[in-house]
Design a protein that fits this description.
It contains 22 helices and 18 strands. It has about 750 residues and is of the alpha+beta class. Strands 1, 2, 3, 6, 7, 8, 11, 12, 13, 14, 15, 16, 17 and 18 form a 14-stranded antiparallel β-sheet that branches. A two-stranded antiparallel ribbon has the order 4-5. The chain has a two-stranded antiparallel sheet with strand order 9-10. A hairpin with a 4-residue loop joins strand 16 and strand 17. Helix 6 packs across helix 16 and helix 8 crosses helix 13. About 35% of the residues are buried.
């Protein structure tokens, strides 16, 4: 019996001791080990809301484009307006005034999204769209800005001097000729010109078949409401709509008397007078109305019959046969080919309205003399020979080199046809020279005045339009899709979320003197998570505007809308002179090779970090760190960028020796060279919306509860176990000792 009591009290003491030990252990674990586990859990919970591994991921829609709609993405510009262009042409220092901001709402969407089989990589193209925000902008988008013209710099880069360019521009300028040759004006003139022969031929056939005389024909032509019989009268009457024209016999006789200067059939004067009248020229209209006695309505009836009804039935088919073509749209090219459409006459001979070519004594816009190449073969040489097409500056330059014996015959052209084209250079050269001079003086030269929208997006350059060069010359692209980019999704390592494997299909950037590894995060506002006590000291991001990675350096903690963030700034001297990037002057990134040899240099705002000896060559640059700095505020736990403001400046160099390029017009001989001329300040800003901020705060609140509650519960449970165990152990020990004392007394 005493033994049982002793065992119970001893067990109570031992059990209390174990319980106290377990409680103490749980208490210690809750304070020491649980935070690490909870931290891992919190990272998982955050990652679940930012990592995208498939199109069914929670964050997919926002990642793929909704994010830029939920938040405020803007691209804004300050234009540099040259206020002393006339002085600059005479050798003065360029003086600039900044105009802006011009603010655009920026949207992006990921297109053609594909995930790897293990969901650790994703590939996509980016569709970018910009919309002008008139209400937030300080000036309208059609504000006029004067500055150096990159389109003209591109022309200078492509030709050693202006005389070579003028020669090379002759064939591309023919594209502008084709605008006229393909116009309804020229088409109708060819119908009137060739209609004389077509009508005389068909009239003789009709008179023979029907056995009638000219008087009877003219009566029917003017007033018959149905085809007479016999004979083929199709297309030979003016009144097939059932209403007679009521043109008098005397008027009809004048209209069809080839010796009359008011006749449709008079090839020297009458044909031109009727054509001009059909195009609304008042002098010609009055001459016909007075000379023939017809009315304005009757004049319209005759012209519609001549240029449309008769022409479609007889003149056009015969002209197609004559040119050796089947498509009426090729009639203009038939004229260019060898002037066949006007029976080997140049359109420049005729005083007709809307004629692109005023009458010349020594210049014709047609290439007369091609004897071997068919019209289709010449069309192929002209338009369908890729970069060597004669309609392009490159193709025309190659042809000149071929003529000088410096290039091969890339078009398999015969010597006779090559000589004909060579003669054409000389024939049209003076016309092209005059046209180019006019363009250079009117916003198509080295210094130009254009709308902001044309500088940024539309190009709309008179010189490039004249030579039909469709190379993009706007400073920015709108509604365009980049080549595919591949990034890590972060599935296997969330610190690699949005880290680039290939930027626009390149793992190593091949734009530079040496391949440059990307090794950077994508510039879309999502970076590696930074959960823990150690602060990431820098992020490297791919800055797509300069085609290279840049490093952002941590500076301090800050706050955005009540959320603690880490602020990063662009590392100083990021654009230091570097042969890898073809840069010889500090502060610039050289994009010349990437911009079709247009000397393009990107800097920070106001040429910050560019040597003052260089930036002072223009007036209007006020460099300061405060203006040039661009920050990124990153919320570390999620890796979300809640705010950033990237600032870059586009500049164009007028290189040494460039003032000697213009040997033809001598307009730019006095301009100072080796001058970097600022064009636009560009800013890309993103700010988290209330939706994004509140969403993050909600996540953090949940995570806070997730972190605190388990620790508190476990600590409380451990402390209760410890106290309870201690009490049990104390009671058991006391009782055990008392019973031992009684047992001793019993002895």
């Amino acid at each position: 019996m005493p033994c049982a009591c002793t065992c119970n009290t001893k067990g109570l003491a031992l059990g209390g001791g174990f319980l106290a030990a377990a409680g103490l252990t749980l208490f210690i674990l809750s304070l020491a080990m649980f935070p690490d586990n909870i931290r891992n859990l919190s990272v998982y919970e955050i990652a679940k809301n930012v990592i995208v591994t498939s199109n069914s991921s929670i964050f997919y829609d926002r990642w793929a484009g909704q994010l830029c709609r939920d938040n405020v993405y803007t691209q804004y510009y300050y234009a540099y307006n040259m206020t002393n262009a006339d002085e600059v042409l005479k050798g003065g220092v360029p003086n600039y005034k900044q105009v802006g901001p011009f603010i655009y709402r920026f949207y992006y969407d990921y297109e053609n999204v594909t995930f790897s089989e293990d969901q650790n990589e994703v590939t996509y193209g980016v569709l970018k769209r910009y919309f002008f925000n008139d209400s937030l902008s300080a000036y309208p988008e059609d504000s006029m800005i004067t500055n150096i013209n990159p389109a003209f710099l591109g022309v200078m880069a492509g030709a050693p001097d202006s005389s070579i360019f003028t020669m090379a521009a002759t064939l591309p300028a023919t594209n502008s000729f084709m605008v006229y040759f393909n116009s309804p004006d020229f088409f109708n003139f060819t119908m009137g010109f060739n209609g004389i022969e077509s009508f005389n031929t068909q009239l003789n056939v009709l008179l023979t078949e029907s056995g009638i005389n000219m008087t009877t024909y003219l009566t029917s032509w003017a007033n018959a409401t149905a085809d007479p019989t016999p004979g083929n009268w199709n297309g030979m009457l003016t009144s097939l709509d059932g209403t007679p024209s009521d043109i008098s016999m005397s008027a009809a006789e004048i209209i069809f008397n080839a010796s009359s200067p008011l006749s449709l059939l008079n090839s020297k004067q009458g044909m031109i007078t009727w054509y001009n009248a059909a195009n609304g020229e008042k002098t010609s209209i009055n001459a016909i109305l007075i000379g023939t006695g017809i009315t304005q309505t009757q004049l319209q009836i005759v012209t519609e019959w001549w240029y449309y009804t008769f022409a479609m039935v007889y003149t056009q088919p015969q002209l197609l046969t004559k040119c050796g073509i089947t498509d009426p749209s090729m009639i203009g090219f038939c004229q260019l080919h060898n002037a066949t459409a006007l029976n080997y006459n140049s359109v420049s001979k005729y005083h007709i309205v809307n004629n692109m070519f005023p009458p010349f004594d020594d210049t014709a816009p047609e290439i007369v003399g091609l004897v071997n190449a068919t019209i289709q073969e010449f069309y192929t040489m002209f338009y369908e020979s890729g970069n060597n097409s004669l309609s392009t500056i490159n193709g025309a330059s190659e042809f000149l080199n071929y003529g000088f014996g410096r290039s091969p015959n890339l078009w398999n052209i015969s010597d006779d046809d090559a000589n004909a084209i060579g003669d054409y250079f000389a024939e049209v050269g003076s016309f092209v020279h005059d046209q180019l001079q006019e363009i250079f003086l009117n916003n198509g030269g080295l210094l130009a005045t254009k709308k902001v929208s044309d500088w940024l997006w539309n190009c709309n350059d008179p010189l490039l339009n004249f030579i039909s060069n469709d190379s993009p010359c706007g400073l920015q692209f709108n509604n365009s899709i980049n080549l595919p980019t591949t990034v890590y999704t972060g599935k296997k390592d969330n610190t690699l979320n949005n880290f680039i494997l290939k930027w626009q299909e390149q793992a190593d950037l091949q734009y530079w003197a040496n391949p440059v590894p990307v090794n950077a995060y994508s510039e879309n506002g999502q970076f590696a998570t930074n959960e823990g006590d150690t602060i990431l000291q820098n992020y490297t991001i791919m800055e797509e505007n300069i085609y290279r990675p840049i490093t952002m350096v941590y500076t301090n903690e800050t706050e955005y809308a009540g959320i603690k963030t880490h602020r990063y700034y662009l590392m100083n001297d990021s654009f230091a002179a570097n042969p890898t990037y073809y840069t010889k002057v500090d502060g610039f990134t050289n994009l010349t090779w990437l911009q079709n040899d247009v000397p393009t240099f990107v800097s920070r705002w106001d040429m910050y970090e560019v040597p003052i000896s260089v930036s002072s060559r223009v007036i209007g640059q006020n460099p300061s760190y405060e203006e040039a700095a661009f920050p990124i505020d990153v919320e570390p736990r999620s890796g979300n960028s809640l705010f950033y403001n990237i600032k870059l400046q586009i500049n164009f160099l007028f290189p040494n020796g460039s003032n000697k390029w213009d040997t033809t017009f001598n307009m730019y001989n006095d301009i100072k060279t080796d001058v970097y001329m600022p064009s636009f300040k560009v800013g890309l800003s993103a700010q988290a919306s209330d939706y994004t901020v509140n969403n993050l705060k909600s996540q953090f609140k949940q995570l806070h509860v997730l972190k605190v509650v388990p620790v508190v519960v476990c600590a409380l449970l451990g402390s209760l176990m410890f106290v309870g165990g201690c009490v049990m152990a104390a009671i058991g020990t006391i009782r055990w000792r008392r019973k031992d004392y009684r047992l001793i007394n019993d002895y």
